[in-house]
Specification:
Distance between the termini: 34 Å
Largest sheet: none
Shape: flat
Structural class: mainly alpha
Radius of gyration: 20 Å
Number of helices: 6
Helix content: 40-55%
Number of strands: 0
Length: 154
């Protein structure tokens, strides 16, 4: 069984409830239950606003829709665990008009829009690295932001 949530605190609470249900069912059926975690819990992803703003500018330079790339919480994922150790950014680029997890989306990932998104993504990553490397102020601001959120330096 796998339990997820948009915040780690909610996920932990849901896990406790599921464990209570399992223990209750074991008591009711006069059996035993054994539970173990196979993976560490996934934390919510917290993208750096500083990095997100640099990425947004680079996306705007390419006339791309920046959407909600500055969103603070994006659900639990192993990438969330990484975002608690180093500043991260989570830009998205459109590769299909179809809904994800559909046959049409699967076909579209091989198409021209997806290929263009890969090229744009590579440019955005490289340009963001260059912009950050050339600005001690942006790096200092990013570190300050990270320390304020997590209470530790990178």
């Amino acid at each position: 069984m796998y339990i997820r949530g948009d915040k780690l605190t909610g996920t932990k609470r849901a896990l406790e409830m599921v464990q209570d249900c399992a223990r209750g069912a074991a008591i009711a059926t006069q059996t035993e239950v054994q539970m173990e975690s196979l993976y560490p819990p996934y934390q919510e992803t917290v993208p750096s606003r500083v990095l997100s703003d640099v990425v947004a500018k680079n996306m705007e330079d390419l006339h791309l829709d920046i959407g909600d790339n500055n969103a603070i919480s994006m659900g639990s994922t192993n990438f969330g665990n990484i975002s608690s150790v180093i500043p991260v950014v989570c830009p998205t680029l459109k590769i299909s008009e179809a809904d994800i997890h559909t046959a049409q989306f699967a076909m579209d990932v091989k198409g021209d829009l997806a290929h263009e998104a890969i090229c744009n993504g590579a440019y955005i990553i490289a340009k963001t690295i260059l912009d950050m490397a050339q600005s001690k102020d942006l790096i200092a601001e990013m570190k300050k932001e990270f320390k304020m959120y997590y209470g530790k330096c990178v």
